[in-house]
Amino acid sequence: xxxxxxxxxxxxxxxxxxxxxxxSVINSTDQQIRQLLGFTLKEGQELSEAxxxxxxxxxxxxxxxxAQTQTNTPIPSDFDRFVPESLxxxxxxxxxxxPRSSREWQLDQAQSAASTVYQSFRVRGGAFLMYxxxxxxxxxxxxxxxxxxxxxxxxxxxxRFTSDDDVFRLDAELMIQGxxxxxxxAKGLDYGEDFVxxxxxxxxxxxxxxxxxxxxxxxxxxxxxxxNIPEGGFPS
Length: 236
What we know:
α1 (6-17) packs across α4 (172-186) and α2 packs across α4 (172-186). By secondary structure, this protein is α+β, with helices and mostly antiparallel strands. The model is unreliable at 225-229 (pLDDT under 50). The N and C termini lie far apart (51 Å). It has 2 domains: 6-52 and 170-208, no CATH class; 57-146, no CATH class. It is 30% helix and 17% strand. The protein has 5 helices and 11 strands.
């Protein structure tokens, strides 16, 4: 993966497009450079939404309060979206079900908490809700994708570029290719080949990102295999 800052990305894109190479991007008044900046912001946002990139995936834990609405920092400030099926109650050693839709959540409320085995959760109005109401002091853990696809030169996450030395946290070559086809498209130039090359590069990056879980054909997907429990008889 190639890491570059905003200035380097725009300079490389400008070189390939035949645009005068800028010495600054954020403070530039050149409309061409302002347009290239706009394309980097668009590209950064859309690439960050393409998959659960390992570089943008973060683990978060919080400790429950004894109420349906959790108030002990259940959702971090840089939260963008949950990684599906990653929420677990580590204290109870059970997976949380959700996020629940409005219909499913209301169905949960209509059922007896005493007959409910798994806790469900829902995010509504920015609040993290749990049902049945947990006991205070339980540890909940999950992974999420951060909205901070950029970071400062000192490593602080950012939602967008605001300085020439801000770094793109994903592969800079993908952003450069994205900026190039977007620029050509905006100018009414032929961008078809550039777009196909870009889409192929993104697909390959997604396929290679973070590895993938082994697929077992003919055997059930069992989480308890991680505990090395034999599928046959136990030795005497």
